[in-house]
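Methods: example folding runs. The two proteins below were folded one after another, and each record is reproduced exactly as written to the output file, sequence line first and structure-token line second.
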Amino acid sequence: MTEADELAAEPGVARPLGATATSAGVNFAVYAQYAERVMVCLFDQRGVTETARYRLTGRTGNVWHGVVPLPHASVGTLYGLRAAGPYAPQDGHRYNVNKLLLDPAAHEIVGRVDWQAPLLDTGPGAGAHQSAHHADSAPFMPRCRVVDEAYDWQGDRSPATPWRDTFIYELHIKGFTHSHPDVPAEWRGKYLGLTVPAILDYLNRLGVTAVELMPVQAYASEQFLIERGLTNYWGYNPIGWSAPHQSYAVDNPVREFREMVRALHSAGIEVILDVVYNHTAEGGDRGATLGWRGLDNRSSYRLSHTDRQHYENVTGTGNTVAIDQPATLDLVLSSLRYWAEEMHVDGFRFDLATVLGRDSGGFNPNAPFFAALRADPVLAYVKLIAEPWDIGFGGYQLGNFPNGWSEWNDRYRDTVRAYWRGDGRLIGSMAERFAGSSDLFRHAGRKPTASINYLAAHDGFTLQDVVSYNEKHNEANLEANGDGQSDNLSWNSGVEGPTTDAAVLQLRDRQVRNMLTTLFFSQGVPMLQAGDEFGRTQRGNNNAYCQDNEISWIDWTRCSENASLVQFVCQLVRLRRERSELRRDTFLKGSVRGSHSRDVLWWHPSGHELSAQDWNDHQLRSLAIGIGANDSSSDLLLLLNPIGDATEFLLPTPGKGRHWRVLIDTGAQSDDAAAQATAQSVAVERTGRRLVAARTIVALEQAVA
């Protein structure tokens, strides 16, 4: 269609951004500061033929708006945008009326990006001589759809679990249910898969209080992956911030996402989204024009100060979202409010969250984004989790986010892995991580719950692979095994990868149990990657972002094969839930409290409290931790022995009329765990000593004699 074919929309209103169905038609509102003309292109039901084009005639500030009347636009209408304006990359402008654009505020996106040349922003040339690519991109673009926001939530309410009681379970929508036998075939890998009673019962059995969903914002697979026959499985490549990803739906992604949330809430489980507001799928200087770039490039991205045709790239994806720009900040906040208010999401984990705190001087904990969240009446009360790093200068900001935020604590992960691998000089670090990482989070009134403690996550080895591989094995990614981290603080327990050696398998199981016990007894918020409770493996791949196959999908046969490990995790979660001393709002300090009691005591295996000399003993690896302690004893006692030989512990004297009872012994091999625990308790009571097997953790509690 030409400019002469354009129809004029009625002026409409500037809020809300995006497409809003009304009794008169559909109101469209689009931010495009430097545009000279903004148009809405309407398509037939198949999304193939453009049926009409309307020029937005209203403008309020930098928002273009207009109403397309019934019957031309209504709920279900497929549409895209075009914007005319200056094309001057050296000045940061990349308007090109030949490019069909996605609405950045769309609530549904239909179809996939087809990576053909017309999507590219630029033709030949460079710098001031760079030219626009004039081919029409519409045949290769997805479409936006006008959404009916009406939904009967049937009284849905958030479980509103306090941070101190939270147990997060990280999962991928597709991978979690794709191979589950109790999920109907048409629901496997879909939002509705998480509504199946067998799935909800399993999560409740584990004691999960919140699922953290890997990206569900509409995303695209990168061209280089498609050319290799791979896809972006993880989803960290957004094309729409407020639209649930279509491929996870059977039919209607918005309605089905809401049904999933309602089902999880009814089971007492919160929903946390892993969200990506740091970059988009449009890429760098020679990338594609999909939406933001063609509407307002200068407001959307951080551009080089010396040459605005170049993008700052602290994300590793080619571009960085300019969230310090008021228009982009507003768009992100509107997106977050939509997920929280209209989709009933309980919290957000922000990918590469350091980007969100960057201003002209670098990372700033008082950046506009953080201030806006604190001031927002909705967003100030949802759970906020930072991935506290990006790849730019000064990008590692663990512990520096504002009060009210929690952060993925990779130092916890690394310390626990290294400690149980048997590395030395870690007694002090291990104690700090166990006690809540006060060295990182105690400032500005923050609590131990600021620390999200985890052993493994989507990015890296699974927990089973941590104890099964010394080296990464990413050959399936077709990057010559050059991608992914090389140092994983892992140990293969004597054999690389799969083995039938019973001793090696037994050791691996014990090491997994050691780390899991440490996780659930530590102060902070525990997070478990889905499947780690029954030994999920990615065959040594520590960067499975492009593996939409059995490498990444949950193999549910392992759940029954490793039922004892699942039961062990259930026991740990139950112990944590029953004992408030494991879920504190203050850090363990070892300081004297009322009645001469102390919250924690650190014991040498020989039976005395650790001295300054002990803390600095590079040879010391074994450690006893008394929790809920008084001057001479403890309610709980953990005996940690990460070395390859058995270690004898002299135990503190229990209270009058009490004795030590074994709760957990990861080195025990008896099939009759209850009988074994009783026998061990008697032995401990009689001798006051405990021989802890190599690479073993033992948990004791005081019980009435």
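Second run, written to the same file directly after the first:
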Amino acid sequence: MGLYTHLSNPNILRITWLLFGLALALSAALTIPLFPTNYSHEVGSVAPYTVKSRVAVPPFVSMYLTGESERQASNSVSDVLVYDPSAVQKQKSAATDLLQRIQAVKDDPSLSPEQKLESLKHLKDHTLSVQVLIYIVEMEDDQWTRVTNEAVRLIGNAMSDKVRPQDLAQVRQSVLSQVSSDFNARQVLVSTEIARSFILPNLSIDLDETEKGRKQAKAQIEPVRLSIAPGETILRDGSIITPVDIEKLEASKLIDPKIQWAQIIGNIGLSVAFCVGLGIYLIKGQLNTPVTPKRVLLLALIIGGIVFAAKLLLPGRELLSYLFPFATGPMLIATLLNPFLAVVVALLLSILVTYSAMLSPELLTFLSPSPLEPLEKITLYFSSSLIGVLMVWQAKRMYQYLAAGIGVGIAGAAIVLVFWLLAPDREVAKLGWAVLGVMSSGFLSAALTVGAFVLLGHIFGITTSFHLMELAHPDHPLLRKLVLEAPGTYYHSLIVSNLAEQAADIIGADSLMARVGAYYHDAGKLINPGFFIENQRAGENIHDKLDPTISASIVISHVKDGVQLANQYHLPHRIKDFMQEHHGTRLASFFYQKALQEKEGVQRTDFEYPGPAPRSKETAIVMLADSIEAMARARGSSDPEDLYALVEEVVAERIAEGQLDNSDLTLQDLAKIKEAFKIALRGVFHPRIQYPQPPPLIESEKAHEEAEAAERINLT
């Protein structure tokens, strides 16, 4: 029996739209560049990610490296110098002109020494220091004449040889050693400073010839060509970007990449195929719970959240790909929805996450994993998730989630070790970090699953195992009320829960759900507890005095009354299912037959339970357990053969009535359920030992006991 029985047409339409929305979201995640891929960085900036080329780039001319080679060749060509023989005479003439103007100031009788100094300071075309000018003003004429002649001589001597621009400082310094030996310190200082200010290079650069030589040197340089191999690293995370890096990015078409429409259409097709496959499984699959739009929305949020998180966090971060808590998604689906659905989603999602994190179009030239890497990630994510799903399925205690986290980590470590052995470049350090990452991922997945499923279960109205454990506690207000006001119903519910739990466990159904559902299935009897046989005193049956139609109405109403109490005590929807479905659409046959005997015009519909018939394995098991326990108690037989026959009778009757048609129970399940019921009933209705009556007291003993009793009464 497929899910068509659980879905009305409006539901199918809403679920289709939800899956369509999921397909759009996944297409956007795979196509929109959530991760930066435009590498038009400035030279000198720090590379934020490691970038590899996926494609081979044929040899191309590196303008930067070629330019550097040409600059080196050009710089190796020396300047072409031309000798100017007239330069020495020009400088001697310029020096003589300055000295004559200085002489004119010195010879002016109208000027005081201070005025002469000020006049010399304002003379043009000299760089003489103030100290030298002071010495000149104070110097006697004969000394001044000797100094001027010496300065002109030093200029001529220094520039008689070829003086290159780069040698000028050395030549000027050398004049100090050529000064006349009979000069005093002042004369040496004045003559050398005058001479140095006029010594200039007599070799000048021939710009035309120099440029011609450099062009010839550049012309001899061959263009520098670069090529890029597939998988070659272009940028390393944290490295300084060079001009060559920019050229490689441009050659690899990583700067301002063009929109690849074919790849975008492929992404959309992949997303649609994912959602179509998921939708077919949801509609055709044999799930234990109805598929509703709210549950599909939850499924879409989990899948979309995992894909978007992977797209944002994983590209280019190898260690994080091991630490990524992928198993959280499948474990949540197993806990909140269905374990078989979780396995299917884990397989599809491991492919989709690996694709979005390593192989999507925007990353085709960003990352270049080895062929083993995508296979490793798919295997790692699916295998570890499978272990997690199997270990959290029907988990009822917190330690089971911790154990699931350990299992996920161990499975991941085993997969990592296998692929490390297959890899051509086995690095021990890399293995250590990867194992540490997957072990941490297991614990992180378990922690996120526990935190998320409690929150999501509350938001989406899904009953979790933790919630069921709370409902199973005897301190729950509704259970306490049942104990106090309808103890017979409470005891009956305990026995039914024991039968249902064992039967559910043996066929792999949710035994905790079956047990808790059985606790509350008859809670509606609290409204009129005295109208139900288990709460009546022996020999007193109020229905003997009532019209059978009224009796049936009161008994049948405990289903509706139970739902009202469930709403009042905020019980989850799944517990309400047990209240509504434990009688299905069966007939209150005792009262119906009594009515037929007492009057005419009896309407069968007045004696039918409102239903619906059980829609899950757990509610069907409780229906069977409820009927078997009630009939076994009514017959009062403890003979195993009678109990076995009763089990067979009840199960066959419910099958014949069609009450189990929508429960997904198979014939094999029913065979196991019957065996579980038979074993449990032997323990509940075993024969009691008949203790012998005490022997009659002899008259003397009887009299003695009566005397002691009278004495005790008098003492009190």
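Comment on the second run: Residues 1-9, 712-716 have pLDDT under 50 and may be disordered.
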